Amino acid sequence: MVKGALLVAGTTSDAGKSVVTAGICRWLARQGVRVAPYKAQNMSLNSYVTADGAEIGRAQVMQAQAAGLEPVADMNPILLKPGSDRRSQVVLMGRPVADVDAMEYGALKDLLRATALEAFERLRKRYDVVVCEGAGSPAEINLRRGDIANMGLARAANLPVIVVGDIDRGGVFAAFYGTVGLLDAADQSHISGFVVNKFRGAPELLEPGLDQLRQLTGRAVYGVLPWLDGLWLDVEDSLGLDNRSVVMGAPHGRQTLRVAVAKLPRISNFTDLDALAAEPGVVVRFVTGPAELDDADLVVLPGSRATVTDLAWLRESGLAAAIRERKGPVLGICGGFQMLGREIVDEVESKAGLVEGLGMLPARVEFVPEKRLGRPEGVAYGQPVRAYEIHHGLTTVDGGEPFLDGCRAGDVWGTTWHGALENDGFRRAFLADVAGRAGRDFVPAPDTDFARLREARLDALGDLVERHLDTGALLRLIEHGPPAVPSLPPGAGR
């Protein structure tokens, strides 16, 4: 049985590291290998609560599912949640420990590095293979000295590294060569080869370029992954929102149901909308201006890492006034629910004190230092609902109808629960109610199984790896570690 580890890096953010890592995990799991995912440090506002109450990145949850595992904090020991351009909350082993700027973060580096390596070693002892995902690019030379997630991890754990490049963006050959060339010789020795991602067309057209890349770098090309639509589940950050106006199939009624989601500057857990976008006949699009609400049947205010700041943006953009004036269904989730209430008292995130909400729900929110993390269960529309919650705001409801842990007033709903829409029965009942109130001839599909759809997409990732990568070479790389590879010519490195 193969044993070892591998680091999947990328030429850029959103190059496809997360999905390639998940695909390798699914492929190995299907071979009977006990495999676990790992990301030392993740900067993301899409997070999840594990069964034991730890907060980790959604991408690692998806990768754990690909491996057939229940996610745990060791798979993502450090999670950074930006609250502004300069400050982030540091979540260590699933619990928030500090809110820091870039300079203050440096003081935590030794603790973070030690914790990350300890988590990795626990996974390596427990599983046959650990597939690690890097962060951003390994060639971010301004950050190399304190790096934990890329070449710092590769050097500390003696990991082979494959670099994924997004050819759909253009410039992938320069990105591959430049990634290696910017590293010093010791880091270069861990870069074992490349994977071309998101290719549209005939692979033989790439061969001249791939041959030159092999000759120039002395490194292998492990394969070319074709473009495949519909693999956007559990994306890591808002870079993945640009292509998410999608309808999954023909509606059961004569009309589609149109959902407009406010694209807040600090939008978090927008993966809540994945289940809506997976519903046949439902069109989900992310919007930034009031005119985009004109034809919406449902408006969603999603989660936010900076509720008060994003509420101010909502007002400045004109969306707040448009939402208040419109007649039709509105759903607020977590931070969106808080915005819909009468007032917010925040001495924790923004420290703005008392702030007036949109006043569309009879609720008051007060932020407290202790973050609430949980996996609640309840009933709505007569259907069971299992969800998770991540918030500093404590909400008091003084009217309306109960709705999960929040409330409903007329055509406006609010809840702090994430993931509720992944419950098939509840989602169908909610959408049927929305369609009726919006006057749309839309009937939810009776057989959409979101969990099964996610599994099918993970299988599709495993199929991509099996069919388009040199899996034999990957197994040798995992088992034997970094191969002997040349440094680039003098002057090509740093």
TrEMBL record:
One Pfam family, short name: GATase_3
CobQ/CobB/MinD/ParA nucleotide binding domain residues: 7-231
Highest taxon listed in the record's lineage: Bacteria
Gene3D superfamilies, A to Z: 3.40.50.880, P-loop containing nucleotide triphosphate hydrolases
Positions of the CobB/CobQ-like glutamine amidotransferase domain: 258-425
Pathway: Cofactor biosynthesis; adenosylcobalamin biosynthesis
GO process annotations (BP): cobalamin biosynthetic process
Alphabetical keyword list: Cobalamin biosynthesis, Glutamine amidotransferase
Protein transport in keyword set: no
Function: Catalyzes amidations at positions B, D, E, and G on adenosylcobyrinic A,C-diamide. NH(2) groups are provided by glutamine, and one molecule of ATP is hydrogenolyzed for each amidation.
Protein name: Cobyric acid synthase
Native organism: Nonomuraea solani
